[in-house]
Amino acid sequence: MTDRMSLAACRRVVIKIGSALLVDRASGLRKTWLDAMCDDIAELAAKGVEVLVVSSGAIAMGRTVLDIGSGALKLEESQAAAAVGQIALARAWSEGLSRHDLVAGQILLTLGDTEERRRYLNARATLSQLMKLKAVPVINENDTVATTEIRYGDNDRLAARVATMVGADMLVLLSDIDGLYTAPPHLDPKAEFLPFIPAITADIEAMAGGAASELSRGGMRTKIDAGKIATAAGCAMIIASGKVDHPLRAIMDGARHSWFAPSPEPVKGWKTWIAGKLVPAGRLVIDDGAERALLTGKSLLPAGVRTIEGDFSRGDTVAVMALDGREIARGLSGYDAQEARLISGKKSADIEGVLGYAGRAAMVHRDDLVMTAARKAKSKEEANA
After folding, report:
1. Partners of 308 in beta bridges
2. Strands 236-241 and 317-321
3. Which residues fall within 8 angstroms of residue 170, CB to CB, at 6 or more apart?
4. pLDDT tens, 317-334?
5. What is the dihedral sign for C-alpha 342, 344, 346, 351?
6. Which residues lie closer than 8 Å to 280 by C-beta, 6 or more apart?
C-alpha cells in the first residue's frame, strides 16, 4: 500500500506527544505550543475526525514544579513528580481544548490495563464512551503507581496499544525527530531519511537508536516497536517532528515525516490483543518445519518445539521464536510451562502417555496465534530450486 491517507480523511487518530515538546526543563509548560496543538485537534474534530491524545509530560512537569534537579530520578521521586505534574498537565489540556468548546477526559493506564484481557476491555469501553460523547481522551501512563518492573516505560508503545484498542486509522508519534533515518542522524551525518516504510523488517528494526533527551524515555527503538503493534492491526503510523507550532497542520501541509504502511492483512478482534502484548510470559523455540507450518496457517504442535523458556501458565501469551532467534509469532499457550517441557518434541498422539491425560493436540492453537514477523529470506539454493 503506497497511498498515504490524509489526517483529515481519517475516522479516528491517536496523537502521541513527547515530554520534551510539552515541557521546557527551565520554564515548565510550553503553553503556546500546547495551544497551537489544541487548535490542530479542533481543526480535525471540525472535520469529523475522532482524536485521542497520548500525552507525556507528567513527570517532567512535576519535577519542574517541585524544583527537582536534573539527572536520573529514584522511583519514589518519579512517582511524586508524576502526582504533582499530572494535575497540572490535565488542567492545561482541559483549558486548551475548552477554548474550542472541546471537553478533555483524562485516562491514566498501567501496563496491566492493556495486558490483562478484562481490564483491556474495560479501558476500551471507557474510551469508546468518551468518543461517543464527543470528548477528547487525554491518556498517559499512571506513573504515580507504576513500578520499574511493571510499566510501559514509554508512551510510544502505549499509544500503539491505544490505537489498536480503539481501531484507529492512524497513529502519529510527535517527537524531536522528523522521521526514520537509516542511522541516528545525530551520530551519523550520512544517515538517509526514509519517507515511506512499506513494512517493518529486520533491516528497519536495526536502524533504531536510543533515547534522545533527558525528558524523553523513548527513542527510535520504541517507535519501531510501536509501529509493529499498530501496523499489524491495520493502523498506519507517522513519525514527525513536533518542534514546530501546529505540527498536525504542518503534516497535512506536506512537512517531512515518515509514513509506515498498515499491514495488507491486519489482525482483528481477539488477535489484535494477542499481537499487541508487550511482555510475553515465556518463549517457545521451534524448528524450521514448525515455522513453515505456521506460515501456512497451521497450529503449533508439540513435535515442532525444541525448547521452552520461562515460567508460564496455560492461557498466558508466549513468544514463538525461530532457531535463529527471530520472533515469528505470539499466541496463547495451551499448556503450563512444566507440561510444555514434558511434551516438547513429542507427537500429539504421545501426549496422553506423557502427561497421563489426553491434552490438547496443539501447543498453541492457530485461533490463538498471530504471526508477528515476515517470512525469512530464502537462501540462494531455495531461490534457485
Report:
1. 284
2. unpaired
3. 5, 7, 10, 12, 13, 14, 163, 235, 236, 237, 238
4. 999 999 999 999 999 999
5. positive
6. 310, 316, 317, 318, 319, 330
- On average, the pLDDT of the chain sits at 88
Residue whose C-alpha cell reads 521521586 in the numeric block: 77
Distance of alpha carbon 364 from the chain centroid: 23
Q: How far is CA 218 from CA 5, 65, 211, in A?
A: 26, 22, 5
The DSSP call for residue 364 is: B
Residue 332 CA to residue 119 CA, distance in Å, equals 17
Could you tell me which residues come within 8 angstroms of residue 141 by beta carbon, excluding any fewer than 6 positions away? 108, 109, 110, 151, 152, 155, 158
Question: Which residues are paired to 55 by β-bridges?
Answer: 17
pLDDT band, residue 207 (cuts 50/70/90)? confident
Residue-wise pLDDT for 138-149, tens only, equals 999 888 876 655
Contact criterion met (CB below 8 Å) for 330 and 274: yes
What confidence category does residue 384 fall into, taking pLDDT thresholds of 50, 70 and 90?
A: very low
- Given the C-alpha cell 510550553, which residue does it identify? 30
Q: Answer with the residue of higher pLDDT: 66 or 385.
A: 66
CB of 191 closer than 8 Å to CB of 183: yes
Q: What is the CA radius of gyration of the chain?
A: 22
Most distant CA atoms of the chain, gap in Å: 70
User: Would you state the cell numbers that stand for residue 73, as one nine-digit string?
Assistant: 530520578
Degrees (nearest 5) of the Cα angle 166, 295, 162?
15
- C-alpha of 283 from chain center: 20
- Report the half-sphere exposure of 4 (CA within 13 A, side-chain side): 16
